[in-house]
Write a structure and sequence with these properties.
heterodimer; A: mainly alpha; 11 helices; 68% helix; B: mainly alpha; 26 helices
Chain lengths: 312, 697
């Protein structure tokens, strides 16, 4: 029973925490750029405002366009219930291992890309085309990074990975270092951050993710934005589970949850700072440089895997 | 002795036979289509059911039919492997036969469909018999029957030069493959002594598979037999670099036939590879597996990249068959490797993954070709650049085609994901093997499979997005009026026969995706008999809900929960947001202040794949030309811009062109012998007789 309580708690943490995480990143970014901030809670206000607005639908929009926001949101909520963020002993954890989890994000992306093409403007198609190009390069690199971790833990199940890495003997592994490096590069690409995509831009020729969702408005946009924030949060969570799982409660014991929550907040704050440092230090790349960026991520992940087979 | 399953097979063949001779008696084309395709649907369903029963019960039985040449009777045999393939072929043939009733009506009044009816039934019957054949002679006969009937099906619309060329290419490659298979059987039969026992009824000649099963082949001869068989079956399956016929022949055949050719005919080659390696030769070194794995990986990645470059909907699907055959071969290759290292559980996992993908691919590829056929039926268009917005006019077809797209892109909760997931597990579970090459190949293989899966998703966003979404892109505009999203919904939808065929296939895709444990348990006997391991004890250890190959700590997946939770969240969110009456306003497009936005400005198939073409372009022979037509006014305002893009298969120039040139050259040289004068030919005969007398006195 406590398992289910923790499950619900965790989904709520993701739903509520994701906008705060984004707010935290934006606030930090403002500080580094000497701008005044809108506050850490601004993403909530944005989402709330959008939920109160009517939906403006393009004339040509089909049911795919209307269905996509709900699907994307549903996938994010499901993923929030699977990834061990507070405890590794979740009732839903067995629903999908990490390969299936990446495929879940892939289905969300598949439908967003379709929605981008549904309207029939050049921007939507452009966004879809570029997004699918980036995804098709990022996804194998992502899987390779995850495979390296799962070879070490002998499992692709996310809830098993902490058992080996956090609760087992601590060993410094070169393969993990390569995998982590690859994972960071891919997370930047998958969640649409600088240097691959700029979440703040609305300049037509440079945007990728924003181009696909350009025609969304009102409640639909609110769902998509919220799901996007959750995606960033969840990818960070996957990284934490795979590489820094210390602190995640090893059982469904309620008493361990406060500590797990506290450590989670600290880890997310640190990750957010890291993202801001990367984003402030780098400029957005040209779209055709992305292949080199993701190619190097893929190379790192493959090196990690090879070093596991050769050294360990 | 005739056994009950053979009785049912006999009944189903009576149906096929009736359907084949019926055109003699029925003159009305409309009636002919309905009756014959109903018959083939019934026959296919019976065979599928029998196949499923054979797999479920693990039945093994054979029968000898005393027809054919004297002393060379035909042998038929049921075993779980044959049963499985009967199910795959039968099930898809059942769906496609229902679909065909509607599809063929499009030909009425344009051309006689009699040849299509006859060869269609012959083709399905041939595929069934290939799987059932238990001797080399009968196998080759039905293999040829299948190849020839499909040749005539590809040639159905023979007034187009493109079709004749494709069919000829298909015939050539199929026969080169058939020669290799024949030689492989020759090697095996030559080393087999046959079984003689006291009871004269079980005497087996050396050409039967049963006697090959009881022979221990030396490694050198076994390798020769394997390489020949692999080459021959690879030519049929469209493995790169023997794939060139496939994207030519599949698109030009009528769509119901392309569905069968892509969905199940290629699978008979997979059947052949499994039969020869695991059943007839039985003992093999690990590098056979590596060969199969490497060709599988090359086909997977090249297939999907070629598919991305296509703008012909059916050609795109045909190239995806190359990709999926590659994925199946990856599973089989891994199974061969693990078997040779004596790891039965892992071998079972890889083999079952490959076979499950065989079943899945038959279903979703059949569905996609039926969908493409529906589009072709309604718009008379195969070129995606001329399509768009069909979701408004063909809502059923669009939704069903979408299910096919999601399945083939390996996205949960549909079936393509489950089999690819199982193959990933087989990759990841493989321990360090005693071969540096394999230790390098296996991680790399996992990466290539991941890349292919992601590229496939990109390709099907393109295929669905360009065909069904947006606005109509075409120059030619007969079927649709410009604002066709207003009113007249479903104006181009196909009839219920075609829809039923597609709905059944789509439903099977979903069931195979969310309840894999049930089917894996059903297929358990296959891995048990072929590699001596089973996975269902662990795969279904947590009940039908959870798929846990090897152990639940290693990996788990539950399609039901993924499907259920997403559906639940979608429903709840929708209801919450629409609890209060939400108004949805329909507005015109935002055109960035540019007022003359036209439908030609949409992204199309070529522009969609441009980023990927730029990254992987070095693998193709790409020729890009831009020609600007100037006017007198100003160079900055060209009047017209011609963009010409030609993408060619490098393999064509590397392999096929030299061979084709060489054979023409040889033919020309040989042709000089033919003078056309009777005296010269008499001299030839005379010289031949002299030479024969000299040497063979």
């Amino acid at each position: 029973m406590t398992g289910f309580l923790i499950e619900i708690l965790q989904v709520l943490v993701v739903l509520i925490g994701a906008p705060v995480f984004v707010g935290w990143i934006r606030t930090l970014k403002c500080w580094t750029q000497s701008r005044s901030t809108a506050g850490i809670l601004q993403p909530y206000r944005d989402i709330l405002k959008l939920f109160h607005k009517d939906i403006m639908l393009a004339e040509n929009a089909s049911w795919i366009f209307r269905f996509t926001p709900y699907l994307v949101f549903g996938v994010s909520v499901l993923a929030a219930g699977i990834i061990p963020i507070l405890s590794v002993d979740l009732p839903l954890a067995k629903t999908a291992d990490v390969i299936a989890l990446i495929a879940l994000f892939a289905i969300a992306r598949f439908f967003i890309a379709l929605a981008g093409m549904d309207i029939g403007t050049a921007f939507g198609g452009m966004g879809s085309s570029r997004e699918m190009m980036i995804a098709s390069l990022a996804e194998p690199a992502m899987l390779m990074a995850i495979f390296t971790v799962s070879l070490i833990s002998q499992s692709t199940s996310l809830s098993q990975i902490p058992h080996v890495i956090a609760y087992g003997d601590f060993i410094l592994r070169p393969s993990m270092a390569f995998a982590l490096l690859a994972f960071i590069l891919i997370t930047l690409a998958e969640t649409g951050r600088i240097p691959v995509d700029n979440p703040a831009t609305h300049l037509e020729l440079t945007m990728i993710h924003e181009a696909m969702i350009l025609e969304y408005s009102g409640k639909h946009l609110a769902l998509i934005e919220w799901a996007g924030m959750m995606k960033l949060f969840l990818f960070t969570a996957i990284g934490i589970v795979a590489f820094f799982p210390w602190g995640i409660a090893p059982s469904d014991n309620m008493a361990a949850i406060p500590l797990a929550l506290f450590l989670m907040i600290i880890k997310f704050a640190v990750v957010g700072t890291g993202i801001v440092l990367i984003e402030t230090g780098l400029a957005k790349m040209r779209i055709f440089r992305v292949s080199e960026f993701l190619g190097s991520a893929f190379l790192f992940a493959t090196l990690g895997m090879l070093s596991y087979f050769i050294l360990e | 002795m005739i056994l009950p399953p053979f009785v049912y097979i006999f009944i189903s063949f009576i149906c096929f036979f009736t359907a084949i001779i019926l055109p003699l008696f029925v003159s009305s084309q409309r009636l002919l289509i309905s009756i014959t395709y109903t018959l083939s649907a019934i026959a296919s369903l019976i065979t599928a059911a029998i196949g499923a029963w054979v797999v479920a019960s693990g039945f093994v039985g054979s029968v000898i039919i005393p027809v054919g040449l004297p002393d060379l009777p035909f042998h038929l045999r049921f075993d779980p492997l044959a049963g499985f393939f009967l199910t795959v072929i039968g099930l898809l043939s059942f769906f496609v036969s229902i679909y065909s009733i509607g599809y063929l009506k499009g030909f009425i009044g344009k051309r006689p469909v009699t040849s299509l009816v006859i060869f269609y039934n012959l083709f399905i019957a041939g595929m069934f018999l290939v799987v059932l054949a238990d001797d080399a002679l009968f196998f080759m006969i039905v293999w040829e029957a299948m190849a020839l009937s499909s040749y005539f099906l590809v040639m159905f619309e023979d007034e187009k030069a493109e079709n004749r060329r494709a069919a000829f290419l298909y015939l050539v490659v199929a026969h080169i493959g058939a020669i290799a298979i024949l030689l492989s059987f020759g090697v095996m039969a030559g080393l087999t002594t046959g079984i003689e026992s006291q009871d004269s009824s079980v005497n087996l000649a050396s050409y039967t598979f049963e006697s090959m099963r009881h022979t221990q082949f030396s490694e050198g001869w076994a390798t020769a037999a394997f390489l020949l068989a692999f080459f021959g079956f690879a030519a049929k399956a469209g493995v790169v670099p023997l794939h060139v016929w496939l994207p030519e022949a599949h698109p030009v055949a009528p769509s119901n036939v392309s569905a069968l050719m892509s969905g199940v005919m290629l699978k008979t080659a997979i059947y052949g590879i499994i039969r020869v390696t695991f059943d007839l030769l039985r003992v093999f070194p690990w590098w056979w597996g590596a060969v199969v794995l490497i060709f599988g990986l090359i086909s997977t990645i090249m297939g999907v990249l070629y598919a991305l470059m296509q703008h012909d909907l059916k050609k795109l699907l045909a190239y995806h068959s190359v990709e999926n055959i590659g994925i199946i071969l990856i599973g089989i290759g891994l199974a061969l490797i693990f078997t040779s290292f004596h790891m039965p559980i892992l071998a079972a996992l890889a083999l079952i993954a490959g076979l499950y993908h065989t079943l899945n691919h038959a279903m979703f590829k059949g569905l996609l070709f039926m969908g493409a056929g529906a589009v072709l039926h309604s718009t008379h268009e195969r070129n995606m650049e001329e399509m768009g917005g069909l979701i408004h006019k063909m809502p059923w077809t669009a939704a069903l085609f979408l299910i096919g797209c999601v399945s083939i892109s390996a996205l949960p909760p549909f079936n393509g994901f489950v089999s690819e997931w199982l193959i990933f597990q087989a990759f990841l579970l493989s321990p360090s093997l005693h071969s540096p090459l394999l230790n390098l190949l296996i991680p790399l293989g996992a990466a290539i499979l991941a890349l292919a899966a992601a590229l496939a998703a990109a390709c099907f966003v393109k295929a669905f997005g360009v065909t069904f979404l947006g606005h109509w892109r075409g120059h030619r505009n007969p079927p649709l009026h410009p604002p066709f999203y207003k009113g007249g919904k479903g104006g181009l939808e196909v009839d219920w026969f075609m829809r039923t065929g597609m709905i059944l296939a789509a439903f099977t895709c979903l069931i195979l995706g969310i309840l894999p444990t049930m089917f894996l348990e059903w297929m358990d006997v296959l891995s048990e008999t072929l590699v001596g391991g089973r996975i269902s004890t662990t795969a279904g250890a947590f009940g039908w809900l959870w798929l846990t190959p090897v152990s639940h700590e290693r990996a788990s997946y539950s399609g039901v929960i993924v499907f259920g939770v997403i559906l639940l969240v979608v429903a709840v969110t929708y209801l919450l947001l629409h609890a209060r009456r939400t108004s949805i306003h329909r507005t015109p497009l935002w055109d960035c202040g540019f007022e003359k936005i036209t439908h030609r400005m949409q992204y199309n198939a070529t522009s969609f794949s441009m980023p990927i073409r730029r990254i992987f372009g070095f693998l193709f022979n790409v020729k890009e030309q831009v020609r600007i037509k100037q006017t007198q006014r100003h160079p900055a305002f060209p009047e017209r811009l011609h963009y010409h893009l030609r993408i060619r298969d490098r393999f064509w120039n590397w392999i096929y062109q030299p061979i084709s040139d060489l054979s023409f050259w040889v033919s020309r040289k040989v042709g000089r012998l033919q003078q056309g004068r009777i005296q010269v030919y008499l001299v030839y005969s005379f010289i031949t007789i002299i030479v024969l007398l000299l040497f063979f006195r």
